[in-house]
Each structure stands twice: as C-alpha cells, then as structure tokens.
Amino acid sequence: MFDFIIVGAGSAGCVLANRLTASGEYSVCLLEAGPPDKSPLISTPLGVAPLMNSHTFNWQFNSAPEPTMNNRRIFQPRGKTLGGSSSVNGMMYIRGHHSDFDEWAELGNRGWGFNDVLPYFKRSQFQQRGSNEYHGTEGSMYVSDPSYIHPYSKRFLRACEQLGIAYTEDFNGETQEGAGLYQFTTKNGKRCGAAQAFLHPIKARANLTVICKAHACSIEWKEKRAVGVRYLDAEGNTHILGARKEVLLCGGAFNSPQLLMLSGVGPSEELEQHGIPLVHELPGVGRNLQEHVDALLVRNTKGRGPLALHWKEIPFLLKQVYDYVVHSSGLLATTISTGAFVKTSEKENRADLQLLFIDMRMDDHGRNMAFTRKHGYSCHVTLLRPKSRGFVSLHDANPLSDPKIQLNLLDHADDVSRLVEGVKQTRALMSAPAFADQMADEVFPGEAVQSDAEIESFLRQKANTVYHPVGTCKMGQDHMAVVDERLKVRGVQGLRVIDASIMPTIVGGNTNAATIMIGEKGADMILSDQRTDTVESDPIEAQEAAALSL
C-alpha cells in the first residue's frame, strides 16, 4: 500500500515523485514500464540519433495506416525509461506562446492562463543566463545555451537576416517570433532530462519506491474509486499495488488513454468492442489527438562544409569525441542549435511555424543512415497549431499491445495551405545568399516540385511529426473533457491524469517544458487538496455521490 501511485516516470511523473515525497508525509510508488536510464546514449546529447532505433529505451510506436498521408504508417517514438521522452528527445527548451495558455483558461480551465503557469515554469528551471521576469535559477532543470554552433547554423542565421527575419534573444521571453539560438535541458554537456533533474537526486528518500520494467495493465476499482494498479513485471508475473489516496496517470498522450480504456473508462462502444467491462463512460478518452505536422527540406552542397558520416570526416569526428570526453563540449554536447518562429502571413498575430535547422542531410527521422553520408543541410518546418484531430483507441484488450494511433495529419484544409506556405518560405531561406557559394541541388521536395498541388503531394508522401502528441485526455468543461481543471478524471474518484494528454490545445513549440509545468502545477493541486481536505467537487462526481448515498 502507498498513498500515491504514479504510473509513468516521464517528464510529469518524475516531477510528481519529487514534489509529493518532499515533506516525508506521503508514501509514493513510481511505476515505469522501461528499464533505468543508465545508457551513455541517454546522457550524451547527440545520442538522441541512435536512440531513435532503440527498442530498449523507445516504445517505437507507429500509427495505423493514415488515409490522409498516402496510407503511410507514421513513426511515433516515445521514451520507455526513467525520464520518459525527456530521456530520448532533442532536449529543446521551448514553452510555447503566452497566448497558448491564455486560451486554455478561456476554454473554462481556471488557473491555467500564462500568468498562472509562469511561476511553475520558473520553479523547475535553473536558467544558465540568470533569472528575470520569465526565468528562474532555483530549480533543478538546467536550461543552457548550445556549447557548439556549426558554421552552417551561423549561415542559417545570416539567411534569416537577409530575408528580413529579426533576431530574437529568447524564444521563451517577451517575444517568441524571430530567429535565434535554441536552449537545451543540458548540464555540463550532459542531458538534464526529468529523471536527472527531479528523480535521481531524491531516489534515496525512504518514502519513495521506484519500480522499473513494470508494465501497468489496469487500474483497480472499488465501485468508482481508483484504489490501486495492476502491473506485470519483466518475468510476466502479476502484481497489485494499493493506493490509499490517489492513482496518478502520467503515461503520456498514447499510454494514458490506453490504460483508462483498458480499465473500463472511455467510450462505451470502444470498450464493448473489446469485451472490457464499463466502469464509467467518458466519450472523450483518446479523442482530440493533436500533433505538430512537419516537413523536412534538404539541399546538397558542393563541398564538405556540413556534417556527414563519411570516411573523410573521421578526423573531425574523432576530435569531437575527444572534446566531449575531455571537456564535455563540442558537437556531441548539443543537437539542433538554431531555428526560428515565423508567420505564414502578416495577418497572423503570432508565429504559426517553427523552423529547426540541421547541419547535415536527414531523412526518415535520422534512421536512414545511408542518406547522411553525403554533404548537405536540412531544415524542419513545423505547423504549430494544426486544426486536424486524430484519436487513440485499442487494437484489443491485451495490455501488452500497442495503442492504436490515428493521427489524421493534414486532414484539415487550413493545415495544408499553411504548411505549403511554410515549405515555400523555408525554400527561400535555404537558397538565400548566405548559402550561395556552396549550394547545390535540392533533394526534398526536389526542383520539379513547384506548384501548390505538387507541394501538397510531397507533404502527403513525406511529411511526418516532431513527436509532440497531446490532448487525448483533455482538460475542460464540455462533454468531451476527460479531466477538470484540477486534473481529476470526471465521474470517478481517486484518479487524475497529469501529462501532455490533458492539454486541450497544443502549444506553439516543443511540448516537454509545458509537460514539466503540468507536473509542477498538478503536484501543487494534490498537496493543496490533502492539506485542506476540501477538494472542489466535479459536478458529475457530486451527482453520483448523491445517488450512492440514496
């Protein structure tokens, strides 16, 4: 028996484990399906590339065939280790635009506007540049400038200047729009993910139990109260843990709705199809899936300037290994160092595209290693607030099966037109005078692709995501909401969802920082409820409690 059981040791789960055990008053068990995060690939920032192919630390999900994307299955990597996706991601620290959170509040989620959540962003952060109105230096999540900037990344910044894109000092400050340097969750050249920042420093606490290789199968119920979790260990043995106070789901936008449905909470027709007894009907579980759809443009170069996995580059690469081992600096200590936030039109009141420049040729999430042997440069163009919506459902009632993921990318016409414009703008940047002396032919989309219809065809054939799924247990007040503003699952007791799945709308940027903020705010709400014993009642819960008392 524990006071709290946290399912999933990802970005939010590690924060919860830290904050809920800090006073010593409550016992906490943290369950993680993957192994400990002991691989040097995790601690080395550039290790993110081989982690894409790891079956040990990566769930390696794929979507169902996507009708809107030429029936392709879209690769969806997710972290499967302590730290979750913060242990396998690109470590970029981006919060989103201020208005993203104000919109959450406007949807009826009190206490989730930007001014409400900013203190939680600052609480978790140790900002290398120092503290100010937007940044803190008291937290354990290190946020650092890149230790290495490739000459081609500097060319990209010059190209932005040549095309009239202003330089911005801080994508997380007053003005997001513009070109500049990304910051990363790194400390002294090493990854500083959620496990490194929040979990490892406190693993010796007597009131914290961490169990790895524990695959959650279902929530245990007493009537409509969550009272525990059933899980399988690495040998296939079943265990049941009891929760005196609450079960907290932190599995992310794919695993949290899957576990809810496996446990009898979700759309009744979905559960009936798989023979799962209904505990409580919530039609919104698994719905509202949002992802940043992304196109990758690639150009060749005449010479050897950009990075390449070529034998001629061995001396340079060996020097980078030496710099990293001896000085924790250089190429291996960073990932994508430069980018920009831009508008598809001056009519927009905020940037709706994000650019990420890469100093080498890239294809298929970096898994196409042969493609990296030639010299060239690439740039992601990402649509920040897509209108297309997908869903997560079940293949069957087997908890070891992957969730069924349907992204529906580019299902909405507005997404298509904006990303087509984004491709045009990115093309212009990649052929700016800053690259002229070395610029060769275009690989993707290719010189033959010019009209809007041809660009759209390219997108449906090649566009992917940048691994930011959110929204499948959305916070809100409408009938499709899964959790209320205190992150309690509607219609049941003793259960909350605290991860990226609660975002009602996706933020304009990378999602890890916002997920950590959700963990911080969620922990505060739990502790506040425990202190006061006056939890604000969900209207549905209140009605059911009254019915039970009768």
What Rg do the Cα atoms give? 23 Å
Please write the CATH class name of the largest domain.
Alpha Beta
CATH topology (level 3) name of the largest domain: FAD/NAD(P)-binding domain
Helix fraction bin: 25-40%
Main sheet record: 7 strands, mixed
Number of domains: 2
Number of helices: 14
* N- to C-terminal distance: 31 Å
DSSP, total strands: 24
Q: Look at the helices and sheets and give the structural class.
A: alpha/beta
What is the beta-strand fraction?
15-25%
CATH homologous superfamily (4th level) name of the largest domain: FAD/NAD(P)-binding domain
Uncertain regions: pLDDT < 50 for 5+ in a row?
Answer: 534-550
Overall pLDDT:
93
Q: Tell me, what's the shape?
A: globular
CATH architecture of the largest domain: 3-Layer(bba) Sandwich
List the SSEs and their pairings.
Blueprint: E1 2-7, H1 11-21, E2 28-31, H2 40-43, H3 48-51, E3 61-62, E4 75-76, H4 98-106, H5 114-124, E5 125-127, E6 141-143, H6 151-162, E7 178-181, E8 186-187, E9 190-191, H7 194-199, E10 208-211, E11 215-222, E12 225-232, E13 238-249, H8 252-262, E14 265-266, H9 268-273, E15 280-281, E16 293-301, H10 314-327, E17 338-342, E18 353-358, E19 376-383, E20 391-393, E21 404-406, H11 413-430, E22 439-444, H12 452-462, E23 464-465, E24 495-497, H13 512-532, H14 539-549
Parallel strand pairs: 1-2, 1-13, 2-10, 5-6, 13-24, 14-15
Antiparallel strand pairs: 3-4, 7-17, 8-9, 11-12, 12-13, 16-19, 16-22, 16-23, 17-18, 18-19, 20-21
Helix pairs in contact: 1-13, 5-13, 11-12
